[in-house]
Amino acid sequence: MSPAPAQFDKESGSARPRIEGDREQEILSATLQVLSEVGYDRLTMDAVAQAAKASKATLYRRWQSKATLVIDALLAQKGVEHFEPADTGTLRGDLLAMFCGFGGITEQKPIALLAGVLTAIHRDEELGSQFRERFIGPKIAASRVIYDRARDRGELREQVDLDLLAPALAGIVLHRVYLMGEEPTPELVSAVVDQIILPAALHQPHEQES
């Protein structure tokens, strides 16, 4: 079998072998395995290379840093890059479908892997930047699509701040999971939607006393 065609690296100005298909998935799966075992801080390219039965040089030809490798692995595992928000016809239905469906916040494995990254995003500038742009960004954008559709249907109250509201559901659930030790169940998501998100989105807030 002939070798895979070279892929041009714009930053280095050189060609590099393309890692794709099953081999790429094997390396990304090995990355998630190591991440789940030791967390981001202790994850090394050597450890991933050993788990994937590849050379460290092979990894560096495709991924310039462990931050890029880990984010690629998380995206491949969750399917974030190809995520399309559900359209059930109601804001409540869309939120439950998004957060309780495949790749949602109620799945145990993604939550456990996320815990291995969250402790490092404030210390590792590259990881934090890529995490916010490539991992969290698409999720927030999908949430905005859901809320924009709800606004077009006339469900939302006037002047609701979507920049504040769109990330709120995930933030509240993850707070209760990571800090309060609760399980990320569909029942928890439903309670947050019904008791916090929908009242904020669909009803006028109480006027502050003068």
TrEMBL record:
InterPro entries: DNA-bd_HTH_TetR-type_CS, Homeodomain-like_sf, HTH-type_TetR-like_transc_reg, HTH_TetR, Tet_transcr_reg_TetR-rel_C_sf, TetR_C. Residues 1-21 are annotated as: Disordered. Keywords: DNA-binding, Transcription, Transcription regulation. Residues 21-81 form the HTH tetR-type domain. Gene3D superfamilies: Homeodomain-like, Tetracycline Repressor, domain 2. It comes from the Bacteria. Residues 8-21 have a biased composition (Basic and acidic residues). Residues 44-63 bind DNA. SUPFAM superfamilies: Homeodomain-like (SSF46689), Tetracyclin repressor-like, C-terminal domain (SSF48498). PANTHER family: HTH-TYPE TRANSCRIPTIONAL REGULATOR RUTR, TETR-FAMILY TRANSCRIPTIONAL REGULATOR. This is TetR/AcrR family transcriptional regulator. It comes from Nocardioides dubius.
